[in-house]
Amino acid sequence: MEGSPPAPADTLWWRDAVIYQVYVRSFADGDGDGTGDLAGVRAKLPYLVELGVDALWFTPWYLSPLADGGYDVADYRTIDPAFGTLAEAEKLIAEARELGLRTIVDIVPNHVSDRHVWFRAALAAGPGRPERALFHFRTGRGAHGEIPPNDWVSEFGGPAWTRVDDGEWYLHLFAPEQPDLNWAHPSVRREHEEVLRFWFERGVAGVRIDSAALLAKDPALPDFTAGRDPHPYVDRDELHTIYRSWRALADTYGAVFVGEVWLPDTERFVRYLRPDELHTAFNFSFLACPWDAGPLRAAIEATLAEHAPVGAPATWVLCNHDVTRTVTRYGRQESGFDFAAKEFGTPTDPGLGARRARAAALLSLALPGAVYLYQGEELGLPEAEIPLDRIQDPMHARSGGKDPGRDGCRVPLPWTADAPYAGFGSETEPWLPQPEFWPGYAADLQAADPGSMLTLYREALRLRRTGPGFGDGPMSWLESAPGVLSFVRSGDAGAGDAGDAGDTGAGSPGALICVVNFSVAPVELPPYTEVLLTSGPLVAGRLPQDTAVWLRAAP
Asked: Confidence class of residue 72 from pLDDT cuts 50, 70 and 90?
């Protein structure tokens, strides 16, 4: 490669972009083998352009044994053969760029695959050898070393340690096939900066950092004590030195970072967003909220308030490859999201969930900042129930079969209703089974239906892209009835600052107003000159329950 392409004129695109998450394995199958691939994505680029998104975030497409959906990386410089080749990835990045779509890739710095050359060398080298210093190998406790070195628990359940044949144990905060790297070792830091440079040279516009708060570990690897400060492996201060170094590298390419940072402490969270660290981080408090005006308003206010001191834009997301699909979650009695609460057979009302998901789409797209859209959300796909013998997610096995896992939101997409496997492109059954009703959600049917979820998203994204008042910038709450969220977006005087908790009477003339009704009774709308878009029909000029509307404010 001869270097990255010239920086685009809009270097702050990431502050209000709509970024589409592509889970390659389930997006589209270009060679008919049952697995989505880069050829399938390239064929669907026109669809993504028509949808109206600004960038594509690809979950890991690297060489991997797929013990955890690709988040067990064996080689960052090789595309997994199931998806294609490095040359195809370079073509995809370039073709997307020509169509106005930027590319974001995924980096998984906490761990690698147990098939990675480093880990294989560490196993072969034996105890005490330098190769093992790249990981966290320790002798066990007990008379014969038969007890793990400490009591840490894996994120997937069970112990965070696995014993090897020579008697030592290695740390893995996730699956045993994902050994944790030792970020105190300079070779680990150097290698990851080289990986970043490798992909920046190929024209990627940004990097999403998986499990960004978990890299650094207490060197003593002590037992876990609730409330311990600092935590032995979450949000340690050493991380910020790592990310400052990464930011300096990214700035030379005009590239951006988005961190997966799960932290309940907002003051600690915002430290990752200082001007010399990450550009943005995912907003999980909004995602986890139930469909309820009070918690959602609180999450919005807290998010904007915590981002304001460092000038970072908020990000809004309803679903991703780890989370129960929005339509299913919002149709449940308990409509929030919590990994610990997932279980089989939770009832849901699909119609209710779809109404709420439509309203949530307008809500999230009207808020200040950037939006992440997981593939299939624009089709209103529900969570699929995967037969027990077809579940592949390690969360299911590691939970002893209690947790249904994350496969239900990863089922291959339906593209064409009357084609085999709903047009996914496979000549054989896809890697995860599609429900019988899947063709009814196909993109070709929805494109022809003015009332479909796809049509709603296309129109909402068109308005967001072409109209004033969207994206980055201020917002103020408007006075509204209980159970109603109403806010105005405008850069004009009188619109207020982003995150202003006070309620105002009306928006400035021509400003964008978003109203969402969570209450049972239809509500009156604030003064307006134009209805831009509704998630469902108005009733005698009023906004019914579980419905959202975008308006232009009246003088």
From this structure: very high
Residue of 260, 306, 378, 546 with catalytic role? 260
At residue 391, φ and ψ (nearest 5 deg) are -65, 130
Containing 119, the helix (H) or strand (E) segment is helix 117-125
- What are the backbone angles phi and psi of residue 171, rounded to the nearest 5°? -85, 140
Where does the pLDDT of residue 495 fall: very low under 50, low under 70, confident under 90, or very high at 90 and above?
A: very low
Nearest 10 degrees: Cα torsion 215, 62, 204, 380: -90
Distances from the Cα of 510 to the Cα of 42, 419, 468, angstroms: 39, 46, 9
> Distance from first CA to last CA of the chain, Å, rounded?
55
Taking the model in full, what pTM does it have? 0.94
Instruction: Report helix angle 238-251 to 186-200, nearest 10.
Output: 30
Mean confidence (pLDDT) of the chain: 94
Strands, E assignment, 132-236: 137-138, 161-163, 169-171, 206-209
The first and second tokens of residue 9, run together, are 């004129």
Task: Reply yes or no on whether the pLDDT at 6 is more than 60.
Answer: no
Residues in the chain: 555
Tell me the β-bridge partners of 550.
514, 533
The pairing of strands 102-107 and 55-58 is parallel
C-alpha–C-alpha distance, residues 540 and 245, integer Å:
58
Q: What is the pLDDT of residues 336-358, one digit of tens each?
A: 998 888 889 999 999 999 999 99
With beta carbons less than 8 A apart as the criterion, state whether 172 and 179 touch: yes
Beta bridge partners of 56: 20, 103
Which residue is associated with the tokens 């905060």?
173
Catalytic residue status for 260: yes
Q: What is the pLDDT of residues 398-451, one digit of tens each?
A: 888 888 999 999 999 999 999 999 999 988 999 999 999 999 999 999 999 999
- Residue 273 token pair: 């967003």
Catalytic-role residue among 16, 29, 210, 383: 210
Which DSSP string corresponds to 49-87? HHHT-SEEEEPP-EE---TTTT-S-SEEEEE-TTT--HH
Angstrom distance (rounded) from CA 356 to CA 536: 10
Q: How far apart are CA 14 and CA 291, in angstroms?
A: 27
Indicate whether 8 pLDDT > 50: no
User: Parallel, antiparallel, or unpaired for β 206-209 and 256-259?
Assistant: parallel
d(CA 167, CA 424): 46
